[in-house]
Specification:
heterodimer; A: mainly beta; globular; B: mainly beta; four-stranded antiparallel β-sheet
Chain lengths: 114, 113
C-alpha cells in the first residue's frame, strides 16, 4: 500500500518566519504534488514535480517554493509566512505521466500562521 | 482553462436515502475523471475513476459514477447511504496527457442515523 508521509500534522508559526513542510513517499512515484485545502475552495495546486530537481508552478504558487533533491522527498517552503497562508496543506504522489494514475495523499499538515 | 464544478456544497440525508452528487467539468479533450472522499480526520482516498470504456464505473463501498460525455458530467451515486458515508467528496479531472488534477470545490455529505 502506498504511504505518503507528511512530517507534521499540526504546525504553528509566526508571521515572517521561513517554514518548511516535508513530504516523503515510499512507492518510487515519479510525480509529487503540494495542495492547499480551504473550506469552499476545494484543493488548489501550489507546485508539482515530475522528476528529481524538476518543478512546475501550479495555480497558486505565489509566496511558496519547493525542493525535490531526491525522488521520494518533496518539500514545500513558505519563504516569509503570512497569515493568509494559514491552511491545510496536502502532499500527494502518483506514478507515470499519462494522467490516468490516481494520486495518493498524505494526512495533511494544518498550518497556523500567527 | 480546465475547471470542475460541484453543484452541491452541503447535502444532508437520512440513512437509506439515495445519493446523487453532481460534477461538471470544462475541457474539450480526452479526460480522466476521479471521485475522492475524505472521511473526518482521514486523508483523501480514491473512490472510483474513469479513463475509458464503460461509462458506468463502480467504486468502493457501493458507489458508482456515470460519465456522460455530451453533458461533460461525472455524477456520483449510491442507492442507499449509511451514516458511515458522512464525509467530504471531491470530483477531479486530469487531461489525458498530464498528471495534474483539477479539483471541484467539494461536497460535504452529512448522513443522519
Amino acid at each position: 500500500d502506498v504511504k505518503v508521509t507528511q512530517s507534521s500534522r499540526y504546525l504553528v508559526k509566526r508571521t515572517g518566519e521561513k517554514v518548511f513542510l516535508e513530504c516523503v513517499q515510499d512507492m518510487d512515484h515519479e510525480n509529487m504534488f503540494w495542495y492547499r485545502q480551504d473550506p469552499g475552495l476545494g484543493l488548489r495546486l501550489i507546485y508539482f514535480s515530475y522528476d528529481v530537481k524538476m518543478k512546475e508552478k501550479g495555480d497558486i504558487p505565489e509566496g511558496y517554493s519547493v525542493s525535490r533533491e531526491k525522488k521520494e522527498r518533496f518539500s514545500l517552503i513558505l519563504e516569509s509566512a503570512s497569515t493568509n497562508q494559514t491552511s491545510m496543506y496536502l502532499c500527494a504522489s502518483s506514478r507515470g505521466t499519462s494522467g490516468n494514475q490516481p494520486q495518493h495523499f498524505g494526512d495533511g499538515t494544518r498550518l497556523s500562521i500567527l | 482553462a480546465q475547471s470542475v464544478s460541484q453543484h452541491n456544497h452541503h447535502v444532508i440525508l437520512s440513512e437509506a436515502a439515495s445519493l446523487e452528487l453532481g460534477c461538471n467539468y470544462s475541457y474539450g479533450g480526452t479526460v480522466n475523471l476521479f471521485w475522492y472522499v475524505q472521511y473526518p480526520g482521514q486523508h483523501l482516498q480514491l473512490l472510483l475513476k474513469y479513463f475509458s470504456g464503460d461509462p458506468l464505473v463502480k467504486g468502493i463501498k457501493g458507489f458508482e459514477a456515470e460519465f456522460i460525455k455530451s453533458k461533460f458530467s461525472f455524477n456520483l451515486r449510491k442507492p442507499s447511504v449509511q451514516w458511515s458515508d458522512t464525509a467530504e467528496y471531491f470530483c477531479a479531472v486530469t487531461s489525458h496527457n498530464t498528471g495534474k488534477l483539477i479539483f471541484g470545490q467539494g461536497t460535504t455529505l452529512q448522513v443522519k442515523p
